[in-house]
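FAQ: What does a ligand-bound record look like?

Like this one, built around zinc ion:
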Amino acid sequence: MKFCPNCHLTYDDSANVCGQCGGPLSVIPQQVQQQAAYDPTDHTAEFSPQDISDNKVFAMLPYLMSFIGVIIALLAAPSSPFTMFHIRQGLKISVTQILLGICAAVLAITFIVPIAAGICMIILLVVQIICFFRVCKGQAKEVPIIKNFGFLK
Ligand SMILES: [Zn+2]
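The answer part, i.e. the structure of the complex:
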């Protein structure tokens, strides 16, 4: 890839002069190109477009229906890597919600814990909605908060 140092426009390797100002183009080093495109949390490119379009519906279920959705998705699309990615992520959210629920129930007397657990639940609900819409767009991105939970890699 090449770019114009004056206009900051990028061009194909086949281009020789800038279409905007007519000036000479510089070559962008390969390393910089890769860094710009690399997003460690975005796994969308690892899945085939066919897989994504065929199994989108099943990939949504873990976020919509929690454990029931996970089971349906496992039965419906066991060979879909895209669905598996979202099953894992959906499971992480569901398991965390249950743990929070248990903490809140056991430590109900402390008041602070149930309130903190409630806030975390709301955050997780928002995360779930974000995940759901990402599936709608055919993306497979890790959610920052959820990603940090080590279990179920
Ligand atoms: Zn230019």
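Follow-up question: can I read anything off the structure? Yes, for example: Residues 4, 6-7, 18, 20-21, 23 surround zinc ion (CB under 6 Å).
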